[in-house]
Amino acid sequence: MRVFISYSTGDLDLVRRVAGEVEHSAEVKYWDKDKKPGERAWATIFGWIDSCDLVIVLITDKAVRRGLAIGKEIGRGEAKGKTIIPLVDKNVPESELGCLNGRTFVRLDRDNPGAAMLEVGEVLKERAVALATAERAEAKRSPKKAVVSGVKKKAKKRAVPAGEPDLLGVLAVVGAVLLVVWAATSK
To answer: What percent of the chain has pLDDT over 70?
Structure first.
C-alpha cells in the first residue's frame, strides 16, 4: 500500500508523526522527505498521487493559508479516484474547509493524535483488504502475470548490505524473465 501526505511545510513535525504511524502498514511519500534536487515539483507530486492508494491531507491553520496547493493535491487525488482522508486540526473552523468540497474528515488533536490515527488505521486496513482482494481476483484471471509481479515485489523489498551482491534479487529477476519467456512460448 502506498500513501501520499499533503500538508503545509510549517507542519513538518506533525507530518513526521503521522508518517511514522502510517509507515508500519504503507510506503509513505511526502515532499520534504522524498523530493530530489532538480525535479519539477508538481510533476513529482502528481506522480506520487497517481501511484498512491490513499491520500492523507493534514489541514491545520498553516495549511489553510496554503489552501491553493492543498486544493490542487486534493483535486488530483479525486480526479484519479484515490481514497482521500482529511485530518483537520481541532482549531480549524469548518468555515475554512472549502477545499474539502463537503468531504467528511477526522478531527485531529495535535497534542494527542491517537484517536485520529486509529481512524486512519481502520481506513488503511479496509483499503489493504480491498487491494488484496483485487490482486487475488487478478491472479485468478491471469496467474502468470500475478506470479511475475509477485517476484518483482519481493525483489524490491529485500534489503542488501552495501557492497554485497544481491544474489536472491538477481535470481528473482532471472526467474521472472524465464516465466515471461515460458508464458510467451507456451501459447
So the answer is: 76
